[in-house]
Amino acid sequence: MLTDYSLKMPKNINAGEHAIEQLEGIITQASKIVIFTDKGILATGLVDLPKAIIEKAGIDYTIISDIPAEPNYHEAQAMVDEFKKENADFIIAIGGGSVMDVAKLSSILATDEYTVKDLLDDPLLAKKQITSLMIPTTAGTGAEATPNSIVGVPEKDLKIGIVNPEMIADYVILDSRMIKNLPKPIAAATGVDALCHAIECFTSAKANPISNTFALEALDLIMNNIIEACTNPEALDAKSHMLLGSFYAGVAITSSGTTAVHALSYPLGGKYHIAHGVSNAMLLTPVMKFNEPAIKDLLAVAYDRVVKDGDKDLAVDEKSAYMISKLEEIVKILEIPTSLKTFNVPEEDLDGLVAAGMEVTRLLVNNKREVTPEDARNIYLEVM
Predict the structure, then answer these.
(1) Which of these, 54, 114, 56, lies nearest to 88 by C-alpha position?
(2) In terms of residue numbers, what domain contains 203?
(3) What is the pLDDT of residue 2?
(4) What is the pTM for the complete model shown?
């Protein structure tokens, strides 16, 4: 465990079933607001209540809704350029990870001094220029809590995380009504993404007392609520727990970091455009089984926290095996694809996948067990 560690998180967090109503007090100093969202969210009417609150306050606003799912850096730059034309002093992101990531980039790229491409090479160049508020509509990516923005890099068939503490949101609103009618496939994929954040951060080489506090609470909330939250639209308590769990897991990322699950999933999104949560779900069990010799004591601790009616007298090996089987069971119950055949990924692409995955050293260094190219090959083969 690290001996020196730190925590960065949003300055103001409002949570609860009616948290969205706090928006009125948050925007009092704004003169022009840009709402980032996507066309799907816009069509659901989820933007209507925030929009009504802004209109009631008499504040000028514009909506940018043509944000693509999991954008590459060219697409992200186009959104930033669109934002610049508005001369706004407040950003509200209403959506999932892609929407929030583009909004975060816009909050530090309001001038022409740097571009998204420049931040791929030096992410710390830019400084916060625009006040930002994140309202997640999935539970989820945890993007509302992190200093990360993930963009595709087409020339590398890879997704890369731009990490800059200046991108951390000024405000976050967690309101379960915003995820009430989320379609099950999206709820499941994003929910397992949050589950990965929690278990990876807890078993990371950079785990520490601060990150563990958030990661363990996130793991408890997510594992004990994800099935109900994803399968029952009326389960607002479970959905509230998932929103909190997702947020806590995002906070854990800022202090610890994800590991080989995320590292090896990035090429699957970058080249084949497999949804991020789905690619993580595919790799979760294979990576945890690979890591088990190095993390079984930690998985046993997680068992004691998460399994409410579990036998605390079980051996460490038994607790560890139970946790991995439970992760596998969650993915199966939620009917998330676990084979790359579903996405027509040919086995002859294996060498390229391994090469691209091994480039994600930012996350691979967090893995408690070293991942060699041969190890990565074997893990990918498990999901081929």
Answers:
(1) 54
(2) 184-382
(3) 65
(4) 0.95
